[in-house]
Amino acid sequence: MIYDWSRKQAHINGNQTAVSLNDEKITYGELESESNKLAGMLIRHNLSPGDRVGLFMEKTPKTIIAMLGITKAGGVYVPLDPHSPTERVAKIIKSSKPSLFFVDHDTTHQFQNIIHSDPETGLIPWIWWSAESLLHGDDFPPQFIYKDIKSQKNEAYQVIRNPARAAHILFTSGSTGQPKGVVITHANIEAFINWAVPFFNMKQGEHTSCHSPLHFDLSTFDIYGAFASGAHLHLVPAGISTDPKKLSAFILENKLNQWFSVPSALSYLAKFQVVPKGGYPDLKRLIWCGEVFPVPALQYWMRNLPDVQFTNLYGPTEATIASSYYTVREHPDNLTEIPIGEPCSNEKLLVLDKDLCQKKIGEVGDLYIEGSGLSPGYWQDIDKTKAAFFRYTNVEGRRERIYKTGDLASLGKDGLIYFHGRSDYQIKSRGYRIELGEIEAALGQDEMLREYAVVPVHIDGFDGTAIGCAYVGTSMKNGVLAPLLKQKLKDKIPSYMMPQVWQEYDLLPRNGNGKIDRKILSDQFQQKPRPQ
């Protein structure tokens, strides 16, 4: 089970720092005892095996304690983004039906907004998970508070010992405007971590980063990879993520041996050329996943860190963190195509045609994944699960369960898999998988628009893929409408879904079928993007 790694470290390495954020640090021994005590408290408050528990908190050591305590008690944690609009968080809560919420000092005001927006949500029991005193003015008291666990017994709870049971549910963008919950099991996480730790030669006492938010699956590798190897996990403070100099100083001052993030974070640092003279002496591995790493940014990093291992991971949330890898061993030139590589252990990548027959070398087809990382499916959505996960007969005549990624790919002569974009109406921008339909669904609620389309915009250089919105207003002209639309969208979609470029039209271009021609719109944005 995913809590076994940190439990083992507590027994052999209890005094070593496990997790830190700024000046707050906890050892492996403290991590084990506090999560044990929490598990006992949750059991006594009638948490049943399989119950969902919403984590409406910032990324802190106490949040990591909560994750372990919930799973030890047999629960399933659901990380909620406290920076997402209230409307979107409310949708995820209604879908996941949590039995409890964890709330901390930093998110209490957002939590109040959510429970006031929906009477049913306001009836869900909650836990105050901060060392600070409980704020006054709450509509109803919490079940218990963080300080209450201090008096509990330190017992090694393990209510469920079946790795096939769910560990957490991660919600991703949905084309209809309703986020999809991807169920991830203990076995799914164990399969990847058991491959990744030896592959990357992660060792006890190393220092690893946790840059991604907890609702994003990259953080799963950061957390459990660190615990499996006995490393010190450094949570990156949210406040420095947009400050290149501070982020660079964080890597240097904490003597990080491993950095893992989406390429957009690395591209951002490269744009400001913040790698210090002499580089980062302790850094051994720089790993990225979630989107294409623009070659100019990769060139910058490899030029300035000649002794660092650079590895590209590929995999959707449905396949648990990553399913393939490729280590870049030579400096790429501007024409170099970086492959998504070869499968991780117990994984297969298949390039198939519409009849599920294998494509020939060099031919582009639909990319499917088979293996131990595959999610059981989408939370309480049988139709979407059946559409994405299904059985097929492989070349050896065996029936295997596969997942359709929606990506296009080809098998190269070198035996490696190459990525060729999306086959559907979905993009990856700033590391997040985004259904453009979700943005359009939010725009569709605005009476100021006559028609609109949201399209990917491929930008040369460091930035990669941006989001463009083409629109026709009902009355306002000359760019006046775009700022108003952006302001309204802030209450409906997360900031990472916000279009970066906007273009006003008198009439959106059509194709021969009379439908909006999205390819023309993408091309026009790329020729002359106009930020507004």
Properties at a glance:
alpha/beta; globular; 5-stranded antiparallel β-sheet; Rossmann fold; 26 strands
Describe what this molecule looks like in 3D.
The termini are far apart. The chain has helices at 4-13, 28-44, 61-72, 86-96, 108-117, 186-199, 218-229, 244-253, 263-271, 295-304, 382-388, 436-443, 481-489, 518-527, and strands at residues 17-21, 24-27, 52-56, 76-79, 100-103, 126-128, 166-172, 180-185, 207-210, 232-235, 258-261, 285-288, 309-314, 324-328, 342-343, 347-352, 365-371, 377-378, 389-393, 399-411, 417-422, 426-429, 432-435, 449-459, 464-473, 501-504. It is globular. The chain has 532 residues and is α/β, with parallel strands linked by helices. The mean pLDDT is 91. It has a five-stranded mixed β-sheet with strand order 11-12-13-14-15, with helices on one face. A hairpin with a 2-residue loop joins β1 (17-21) and β2 (24-27). It folds into three domains: 4-185, Rossmann fold (3-Layer(aba) Sandwich), CATH 3.40.50.980; 236-422, ANL, N-terminal domain (Rossmann fold); 426-527, 2-Layer Sandwich (GMP Synthetase, Chain A, domain 3), CATH 3.30.300.
What's the number of domains?
Answer: 3
CATH topology of the largest domain: Rossmann fold
Average pLDDT: 91
Order of strands across the main sheet: 11-12-13-14-15
What's the number of helices?
Answer: 14
Query: Per the principal axes of the C-alpha atoms, what is the gross shape?
Result: globular
Low-confidence stretches: none
Helix content: 25-40%
Radius of gyration: 23 Å
User: Number of DSSP strands?
Assistant: 26
- The amount of beta strand, in percent, is 25-35%
Profile the largest sheet: 5 strands, mixed
CATH superfamily of the largest domain: ANL, N-terminal domain
